[in-house]
Each structure stands twice: as structure tokens, then as C-alpha cells.
Amino acid sequence: MIREKAEKILPAIGIDMHLKGAQYIVYIMELFEEGWEWKTVKTMILYEKVARKYKVTCGAVERAIRYAFNEALSRGNLRTISKYLDTTETQNRKLLESLYMNLIKYKTPKEHLEETRKETIQMLRFVKTEAERLLENLEKENPYDLGEP
């Protein structure tokens, strides 16, 4: 799930998916989603994990990620960038963390539709229950009894 979100958002902020750094960023987002321990490890350990998977050096991973983020910061849409990245600190780690936090908040149109559907079903069940209760009360009362004035 996070992979699809990342692959959609990275180009929107100015990181082309053909860049190696983009692939590494997506993989790190998956690691972050996999477990909390990946969010707390030193950045170098993250780089080592990525480097092993892609058979490159840690330095190459760091440079590729830095290059991808620099591309976004220098050429991307600032409004979209500020929505997904905290640019007060431009260290790779801070950018990766802010991207992850904003990705988990981001809802795809499909997720938004599903959430809206669930809320609508819940609301309709409530309305149905209330309508049944009101109908039951109306049926119990004598509609021709005008009562005492």
C-alpha cells in the first residue's frame, strides 16, 4: 500500500521514478511500514539494508537519495513539496521521516471512497434504526385519538 502511495507522490513532488534514489526511497518507505524498528535505526543501517538489496554501496545509496531530494527541492512544485516534506531540515533522514509521516496520512481516491462508503453505511444504519423506532411508536398510538384538549 505504501509503495503505491510513494510511487504516486514522488513524481508529484518532482522526483522522477527512473532515478535510483526514488527506488531507494520507496524501499525505505516499505521498511518504515514494515516495523517501528526501522524508523528508529541509524540512517547508515537503512543505507546498508538498501545497499544489500540493490547490490550497491552505502555511499551510492546516500548520494542517490540526496540527489533525488535535491531534484525535488530545486525543480519540484513547492506547494506539493511542502505538503509532503518538511524542508526546514534537508538531511536525508529528516526528509525520509517527513515523507513517510505524510504518506501514511495521505489517502488515495480509492481509500477515500471506501472510507466515505463505510461512513455512509453507518449513517444509513442509524437512520434505519431511528425510522423503525419512530414507526413502531406511531403504530402503537391510536391515530384517531385526539386526546383531551
Automatic annotation (TrEMBL):
Recorded coiled-coil stretches: none
Residue span, Sporulation initiation factor Spo0A C-terminal domain: 8-102
Pfam families tied to this protein: Spo0A_C
Entry's Gene Ontology BP terms: regulation of sporulation resulting in formation of a cellular spore
Record flagged with keyword Protein biosynthesis: yes
UniProt GO cellular component terms: cytoplasm
Keyword entries, A-Z: Initiation factor, Protein biosynthesis
Name of this protein: Sporulation initiation factor Spo0A-like protein
A molecular function (GO) term: DNA-binding transcription factor activity
InterPro entries, per database record: Sig_transdc_resp-reg_C-effctor, Spo0A_C, WH-like_DNA-bd_sf
Species name: Faecalimonas umbilicata
